[in-house]
Design goal:
Chain lengths: 84, 423
């Protein structure tokens, strides 16, 4: 899976939680979940649970901590996929 | 000076009618909302009938966002939000927009427990070492104040936002707490009410102690029989009732519809002394509660035209009538009209009192007494105290000026409110 495909997958996952639709339309590597998409911080755990389901991976607590923006989320996903 | 307090909005989710119009017609027609409950049968409950509100799931988006409905599994919050938002709208009010909440408006919305199905789901996950998979709303759906938190957020309420809990007295208590706060000038309006979850996990304890009617599983609409000789226990129910309680001045200033005035009321406890226990009321306390309510409302016992009873269809019904008769010093034909909503809805537990208050306010403001169904064979202990005419079995169109609502709950807690037609 290339980076663009992964971003599109992520876009679908975060869509229900996003309060800023414009920012979602322009989602890119530098998009921050809380500051740009205005996702409620409590909902971040739901996003991560959905990521686990869609990518069929398990994300440990330390990795969860890092997933604050698209770039770091992609990094964690890639890491988990390669070590699966 | 103490402020006058009125009711300006109503909302209801009852087993026999969701929304004010459905509920009103069910009241007038004596239409029961009690049905056979397959889930209770599958779980081998003794009582296999229930009063579960018929919610149209397609309409939920009028009340909840898609996001809120993800992993949502709390019927109590669902009923309470529907009833609460309906009452707010009925009062002609809007959710507060903008950055600041509405500092003058709050909610006191009671519950017995919250999201018991969500709790069950969570407990299974925890025991399977899946705690991290609970999701973001396991707490908000299961905290007892979940319902007031949901309503407070949806409406942007900035005054007191809390949940009270006093078993079957909960709804009466929430209204009286709202009344006190508004009378004292600490709030302009409070969305008061109460809610109860549906389902086996909320009702099982009552089934276990055999206080539910398990003899009418094949005849659901006949299963709830308050005041009848064949009363055989209550039918478990659920739902929510909501009332906008408002400062008269504020109601007049915004030209709101006024259903009635709340003159006052009383809450007390029998302390589980003198015949009172965890499950039975102390008669002295019940009588004192009603007398004190009358005193606090500044009326005389003879002024009461109608009583909305607690009357659950257990052996305690005749004791309740006797206590009311003593407290009012009225008997025979001189007793007020009385009915029990539980014949139509079952016993909606923590939601019972608020749903019954909505019914009482409708009857008072629209001049009718809803029929008592299932009591063609009145309990003789009751007719020895009050005349059968006081217990109408058909719809009675009648001018009502003052109505009393009584509620009694586990823990030996009592409540009585006096409503008066606004003039």
């Amino acid at each position: 899976m290339n980076k663009e495909e992964a971003i599109q997958k992520l876009k679908e996952i975060v869509k229900p939680y996003v309060k800023n639709e414009d920012a979602l339309a322009n989602i890119n590597e530098n998009t921050d979940f809380i500051n740009d998409l205005n996702i409620n911080s409590a909902n971040l755990v739901d996003v991560i649970l959905d990521v686990e389901e869609v990518f069929d991976i398990e994300i440990d607590a330390d990795s969860m901590e890092k997933m604050r923006d698209v770039k770091s989320a992609l990094a964690v996903i890639e890491e988990k996929l390669t070590t699966k | 000076m103490e402020r006058r307090v009125v009711i300006t909005g109503l909302g209801v989710v009852a087993p026999n009618g969701v929304g004010l119009e459905n509920f009103r017609s069910a009241l007038k027609d004596g239409r029961s909302g009690i049905q056979f409950d397959q889930q209770l049968a599958d779980l081998q409950f003794s009582c296999q009938v229930s009063g579960t509100p018929p919610i149209n799931k397609e309409n939920l988006n009028e009340y909840f966002t898609d996001l809120e409905l993800r992993n949502f599994n709390s019927t109590g919050i669902m009923y309470g939000v529907i009833a609460g938002l309906d009452a707010w709208k009925d009062a002609g009010l809007e959710p507060s927009d903008g950055e600041n909440p509405d500092w003058d408006s709050g909610t006191i919305f009671g519950a017995g427990t919250s999201g018991i199905e969500k709790f069950r789901e969570s407990i299974y996950k925890i025991d399977a070492f899946q705690t991290r998979r609970l999701g973001s709303t396991a707490v908000s759906q299961t905290m007892n104040s979940g319902i007031s938190a949901y309503l407070g957020g949806k409406l942007g309420l900035g005054n007191q936002v809390t949940t009270n809990s006093s078993a079957c007295t909960t709804g009466t208590e929430s209204i009286l707490m709202a009344f006190d706060r508004i009378q004292a000038g600490k709030a302009k309006r409070i969305l008061a009410g109460s809610t109860s979850d549906s389902g086996p996990y909320i009702w099982a304890g009552f089934d276990a102690i055999k206080v539910c009617n398990y003899k009418s599983n094949d005849d659901p609409e006949k299963a709830s029989r308050p005041m009848s000789a064949s009363a055989a226990g209550f039918v478990p129910g659920s739902g929510a009732g909501a009332l906008v309680i408002e400062d008269l001045e504020s109601a007049l200033a915004r030209n709101a519809k006024i259903y009635c005035e709340i003159l006052g009321g009383n809450l007390n406890s029998g302390g589980q002394r003198g015949g009172g226990s965890m499950t039975a009321p102390n008669s002295t306390a019940v009588q004192k509660c009603v007398k004190d309510a009358i005193f606090e409302a500044g009326i005389k016992a003879k002024d009461i035209d109608y009583i909305s009873g607690h009357l659950t269809a257990t052996s305690k019904d005749s004791t309740e009538i006797q206590n009311l008769s003593i407290a009012l010093n009225r008997s025979g034909k001189n007793f007020p009209y009385i009915n029990s909503l539980k014949a139509l809805t079952g016993h909606c537990l923590s939601a019972a009192a608020s749903i019954e208050c909505v019914a009482a306010v409708l009857q008072l403001s629209e001049n009718f007494v809803a029929p008592n169904i299932n009591c063609d064979n009145l309990n003789k202990e009751i007719t020895a105290i009050i005349d059968a005419e006081c217990i109408p079995q058909n719809l009675l169109e009648k001018e009502i000026n003052i109505a009393a609502k009584v509620s009694f709950g586990f823990g030996d807690v009592n409540g009585c409110i006096i409503f008066k037609k606004y003039s």
